[in-house]
Every structure is written in C-alpha cells, then in structure tokens.
Design a protein that fits this description.
The chain has 392 residues and is mainly alpha-helical. It is 56% helix and 3% strand. The chain contains 18 helices and 3 strands. A 3-stranded antiparallel beta sheet has the order 1-2-3. The chain is globular and about 60 Å long. The N and C termini lie far apart (59 Å). The structure holds s-citryldethia Coenzyme A (SDX). S-citryldethia Coenzyme A binds next to loops. It catalyses: oxaloacetate + acetyl-CoA + H2O = citrate + CoA + H(+). InterPro entries: Citrate_synth-like_lrg_a-sub (IPR016142), Citrate_synth-like_sm_a-sub (IPR016143), Citrate_synthase (IPR002020), Citrate_synthase_AS (IPR019810), Citrate_synthase_bac-typ (IPR024176), Citrate_synthase_sf (IPR036969), Citrate_synthase_typ-I (IPR010953). GO terms for molecular function: citrate synthase activity.
C-alpha cells in the first residue's frame, strides 16, 4: 500500500489510529477517498456524492443520493434562538470563532444528537449537521455584513443553495450559468478529507471521550482556524495582496521566508506529509485559471502566485526542504472571484472538510476506539523537597 501497514500496539491510546477512509502518499502525491482518486472524484462526482462516500464508504446510487439530499434538506432549519447568539457577536468577530460557537450551540437545540447508539440515530445526527452547517456558514458571512438571513431556496442543489444563501442572486445565476457552482463543488470535494491532519485528529480525540458530534466538530473548527492549518488560505491572500501593494517584488518576500530571524513563512507552501506536490494544489491551480477565464476576470494576485511558485521551484532553500504549493495556495483566488470575503476563506475550508470530519468521527465511534490519551517523554525536574516561602 505504500503507507504505514502496522503500528506499534501501544499506538492505541496515542491519538494515532487505523482508518479506512483516506489514503495519502506524501512522496508520490497520491490522495484517495475510500480508494477513489481525488482527480477522478473532483472531475466526475458531486460534493454530496463524495460526502456520502466518505461517511458511508460507498458511492451512492441515484436512489441513495436523492434520499440523502432530501433528508439533509429536511434538517436544514436552524432554531431561531441561534440568531440571538449570532446577534451577540461584534461585527469584528472572526467568522471561524462565530462558526465554532454556533456549531457547539447546536447541541443545546438538538440534545438527541449526542445519542448515536444505533445506525438510525447516527444517520439522523449526520444529516442534521449536513443540513444546518451550510446555513451557519452563510449566516456567519451575512451577519458580518449586516445583511438579512434566510434559507435560500430549497429547490436548488446543496452547493447551489450555499451560494444562494450567501449572495441571494436569482436562481438562474446558479442553474443557467454554473461556473461558480461547479468551481465551489470542486473546491469542497478537494477539501473534504485528508486523513489525520490537525483538525481531524482534534475531532477524533474530542469524540473519543464520547462528547457529541457537534461539540467535536466545534473543536475541529477551532483547530482549523490556525494560520499553520486551514487559516493559511486567508493568510495566503493577505500575503499576495501585501506583495502586490509592495510593487509585486516576490524576491523580497522569498528572502523574508528564508530568513530564520524572521518569523514570516511563505503561506500556502510546505506540508507535514506532502514532500512532493500536493495533488489538490495542481487541480485548484488549473481550476483558478479556468474560473477566472470563464468569468473574464483578470486577477493580478494569480500572476503573483504563479511567479512565487515558479521562483520557489528553482530556489535551493525550498527545493532542499521539499516545499511546494499546498491546497491553500490557490484556493483563495477562486473564493475571491466568487465574491467571498477573505476572512470567510477558512470557513469555506470547514464547509468542505465537514463530511471528512463526520466520517472520521463516525469511524472512531463505530470501531469503539478507546479514549485518546497521548503519552509524553518527561523532561522536567526530578523529585525535590518542598521549600518554605521564606527560603525561596
Ligand atoms: C493544511 O496536515 C494536513 O493534511 C493539513 C492540510 C489538510 O488538508 O488538512 O493539508 C491543510 O494545513 C496545509 C498547510 C497550510 N499551512 C501553510 O501553508 C502555512 C505555511 N506552511 C508552514 O508553516 C509549514 O510548511 C507547515 C506548517 C505546513 C508544515 O510545518 P513543518 O512540519 O514544521 O514544516 P517542516 O518540518 O516540513 O519544515 C522543514 C523546514 C524548516 O526549516 P529548517 O528548520 O529545516 O531550516 O522548512 C521550513 C521550516 O522552517 N519551512 C518553511 C515553510 N514551511 C516549512 N519555510 C518558509 N516557508 C514555509 N511555508
């Protein structure tokens, strides 16, 4: 399999795990969901099909997909009091903090969601969060802009209605001219799972104490928020904008990224596992070109991004350290072409990662994994006698 095949029996309580959901090979740039290549899924499947695949293990047939979509729509209503919690946030609140809070608050309004002791109860909880999460995502953005909140149009598809709830354009914009819908669908697929990354490990370890799914997801959203993880897609756009404002001098920023005295890192570059190209970045880069061309948009930051990537490919510091563009490097350019504000980019990452988090949490509970308990190597003081304060 090219991956890890056996783990030290002691791994059981360390947060590492066995999983049958996603396979990735960092050296060869391979990523597969339940055995299907990310390239094929991004090209041929819809986000809802991929969500079903990740969560339940098989691509759905038409009847299963229609039922999944119907059950999700039925569960998309959010308790009205959630709006009061949303109203309590200042406009300056970062959308990831708002989303994490609202996701955790869902438990209060859906107490039965904590019970997943039967397949039926688990399925109910899954479709509840699949239905309500896109609403929270759209409301988080509109609240920040002081715009009215609603549920879009249930006659639209899952991804179409995300854009409808966010931007409220006429349905034809999404059904007759699906450029943005197709681009968002592909982006959500590419972000849907990535085995035991920081936020997924967080969801699994919080869930291993038998905390509910919504509380576990809330913790995962907080982990994803960090600029070294999902927050990188916002940081990439801010970096590209800074380079543009600075006259487009990429060499200056490359030098900063290589300067060990300078905490600045080239955002969107490097990866814990991919020591070759990130297969998702290749697909997103191509999609960015296509979307901007289809929309007739000239975005100078795309050219700056390409310039940076080309420079890094021939720069010894980056080549020696195997630092290549990752999933976050080009995604923001597409989100921006959709009119999504930069502070919402990581929220869009969370929307894509939702089915992966759910799948991993469900797998952990179905396999009855023990509570996560990472161990440590103690490097502190050896035993010493108490010292009275007068002697300190
Ligand atoms: C995601 O894990 C996942 O799967 C995550 C993710 C997912 O789908 O869930 O793929 C999503 O989080 C992608 C990563 C997004 N983050 C960024 O783009 C932030 C910028 N990248 C880095 O901060 C960094 O590359 C990390 C955090 C991604 C990885 O950090 P590591 O593991 O500490 O990097 P490393 O050990 O590979 O570093 C080796 C060397 C170090 O220098 P030396 O000590 O050898 O001199 O490379 C340097 C690092 O300082 N380095 C960078 C760099 N990334 C690593 N130098 C400049 N710019 C960078 N971006």
């Amino acid at each position: 399999t090219g991956g890890v095949t056996t783990l030290d029996p002691g791994y059981k309580n360390t947060g590492s795990c066995e999983s049958a959901i996603t396979f990735l090979n960092g050296e060869e740039g391979i990523l597969r969901y339940r055995g299907y290549s990310i390239e094929e899924l991004a090209d041929k499947a819809s986000f809802l099909e991929v969500a079903f695949l990740l969560i339940f293990g098989e691509l759905p047939n038409q009847e299963q997909l229609s039922k999944f979509a119907h059950d999700i729509k039925e569960q998309s209503v959010v308790d009205d009091d959630i709006k009061k919690i949303l109203d309590a946030f200042p406009k300056s609140a970062h959308p990831m903090g708002v989303l994490s809070s609202l996701t955790s608050a869902l438990t209060a309004f859906n107490p039965s969601s904590v019970n997943v002791d039967s397949e039926e109860a688990m399925y109910k909880t899954v479709v509840k969060i699949m239905g309500k999460f896109p609403v929270l995502v759209a409301w988080t953005m509109r609240k920040q802009k002081g715009l009215p909140l609603d549920y879009g149009d249930n006659s639209l598809g899952y991804v179409e209605n995300v854009l409808k709830m966010m931007f409220k354009k006429p349905n034809e914009e999404y059904t007759q001219n699906p450029i943005l819908v197709n681009a968002l669908d592909k982006l959500l697929i590419l972000h849907a799972d990535h085995e035991q990354n920081c936020s997924t490990s967080t969801v699994r370890i919080v869930g291993s104490s038998h905390a509910g799914l919504f509380a576990s997801l809330s913790a995962g959203i907080s982990a994803l928020w960090g600029p070294l993880h999902g927050g990188a897609n916002q940081a990439v756009l801010e970096m590209l904008e800074a380079i543009k404002e600075d006259g487009g001098d990429t060499k200056k920023f490359m030098a900063k990224a290589k300067d060990k005295e300078d905490p600045f890192r080239l955002m969107g570059f490097g990866h814990r596992v991919y020591k070759n190209f990130d297969p998702r970045a290749k697909i997103i880069k191509k999609a960015a070109d296509e979307v901007l061309a289809d929309l007739g948009v000239e975005d100078p930051v795309l050219d700056i991004a390409k310039g940076l990537a080309a420079e890094a490919l021939s720069d010894d510091y980056f080549v020696k350290r195997k630092l290549y563009p990752n999933v976050d490097f080009y995604s923001g350019i597409i989100y921006r072409s959709m009119g999504i504000p930069v502070e919402m980019f990581t929220v869009m990452f969370a929307l894509g990662r939702l089915p992966g988090w759910i799948a991993q949490w469900r797998e952990m509970r179905l396999r009855k994994e023990p509570i996560g308990r990472p161990r440590q190597i103690y490097i502190g003081e050896t035993h010493r006698p108490f010292k009275e304060i007068s002697k300190r």
